[in-house]
Amino acid sequence: MNIKAVQGEFKESEHRYILEPCFEGPEFLEKASANNRELLERMGFNGRENTNAVIPSGQSIYAYVGLGKREKFSTEIMRRSYSKAIMAVAKLGAKDIAIIPPPMDNSAFETSYTAAITLYEFDTYRSKKRKFSVENIFIKTDDTNGVKEGSAVGECTNFTREMANQPPSIGTPTLFETKAKEISGIKVTVLGREDFIKLGMGGLEGVSRAAKEPARMVIMEYTGSEEKPLLLVGKGITFDSGGLSLKPPDGMVDMKFDKCGAAAVLGIMKLASTLSLKRHLVGIMALTENLPGGNAYKPGDILKHYNGKTSEIISTDAEGRLVLSDSLAYGIEKYSPSRVLDFATLTGACVVALGNIYAGMMGNDDTFMRELVGASQRTWENVWRLPLDDDFKDQISSKVADIKNTGGRPGGAETAAAFLSNFVGETPWVHLDIAGTAWTEPTTPHVAYLPDGATGFGVRLIYEYLNQKH
After folding, report:
1. Which listed residue (84, 259, 270, 321) is catalytic?
2. Per residue in 355-402, pLDDT tens?
């Protein structure tokens, strides 16, 4: 799908489907033509938020996008309203859609971004392909750079969704390695099981023992500046059965999504390359299956991690923190980053606490966390800070090792973060538990830009964060 900026007014002879914004109240109806006004009044449309009216007018079909009361208008209202209208027009079989952006800051970016993420479909394995036939989006604006950037962020979000949506027998560590190597301007280094053993990465080695697919640590470096890098680490359990601590069948069906953290890191690195960002980024994806088997790691085992810490295994279904621990410690030692951020579908406890609306945020640096909250407020990717203090760290103390890999059900999200805190030292670090936001559930906000499946959470968030001055 092509998204293009168009200067000047749209001509009905050139554009059949046209989206036009309107705020709630009489002002819009007064400006409408007599025929349109009569149709709109008959339909009961008055510009109310998240409503739309699709009517023929002359040679074109207009979709009027309701934005609600002007004084209450926000970027999120824009995304929800425009995505719903775009979807309504797409369902009519439109090949081209001409969009008049709303009057707001950054409108070209937000309009192109919203169009891109709204029209994504995971149809790779359907015999009957796309439901929609949209090929071109035309946006009325002079801001060509805004359209370009919004489109790029949207497409990299969709790339992240595509990787996360892959079925477990296809979305393997090898596929992630292949996709990483296809990104231009990225230096890729790959470690395997022999390297895990040689380097003392007991977490990755332990979790990957029974894996059928070869495990990988894929390291990507993008050097767009000479500054110290931002290190991004993603949990990539390409399928999580729970290991010997087997999940119930109902809890296993969505476990292809346990690789969403790695998919986010991959999408962010692709975005940096696409937009030639003047930043220094290192992305690490910790990739393996977590399966049962005769050679699987076991409850009661003690693993020694890259930084020398040992962990007692209470549950093999608390595996994400084990693979992240080696990745964090190794990345910090090798690349001396200015800051570290990890993405992980880590705990069901975070979903219980924050639902499918917020990602849980914990860390050791208040400034870093405040900046991420600021970035999140400009996106739909919400984060909420959870506590991380010494009491949670005490909860994972072990009698036979330095720490244990779960402190039980109470405070499960916080004790998981407490485990990770043992592997970052004094480096400013934030952990994002995206278990509730990485894919859609019945309780996910029902908005048109979030189709079923992976959401691509994290890509837009980090784009906004990198655009801030630190």
Report:
1. 321
2. 999 999 999 999 999 999 999 999 999 999 999 999 999 999 999 999
* CATH number of the structural domain spanning residue 87: 3.40.220.10
Structure token pair of residue 184: 């231009």
- Please report whether residue 390 resides in a domain: yes
- Containing domain of residue 405, as a range? 156-467
Name, in order, each residue with C-beta under 8 angstroms of 48's C-beta and a sequence gap of 6 or more. Answer: 24, 66, 68
Query: 248 and 373 share a domain?
Result: yes
Taking the C-alpha atoms of residue 22 and residue 52, their distance in angstroms, rounded to an integer, is 9
Tokens found for residue 446: 């029902």
The H or E element containing residue 412 is: helix 412-420
* The two structure tokens encoding residue 467: 């655009």
Q: SS3 letters for 189-208?
A: EEECHHHHHHHCCHHHHHHC
Residue 321 is among the residues annotated as catalytic for this protein: yes
Please, what's the b/e burial string for 185-207 (b: 16 or more CB within 10 A of its CB; e: otherwise)?
Answer: ebeeebbebebbeeebbbbbbbb
Residue 175 within a domain: yes
Q: Do 1 and 114 form a contact (C-beta atoms < 8 A)? A: no
Q: Is 247 annotated in the active site?
A: yes
pLDDT digit string, tens, across residues 66-89: 999 999 999 999 999 999 999 999
Q: Exactly one of 4, 37, 247, 279 is catalytic; which is it?
A: 247
Domain assignment present for 66: yes
Do 239 and 208 meet the contact criterion of CB atoms below 8 Å apart? no
- This model's pTM is above 0.90: yes
Task: Give whole-number Cα distances, 276 to 230, 268, 273, in Å.
Answer: 16, 12, 5
Spatial distance between the Cα atoms of 405 and 402, rounded to a whole number of angstroms:
10
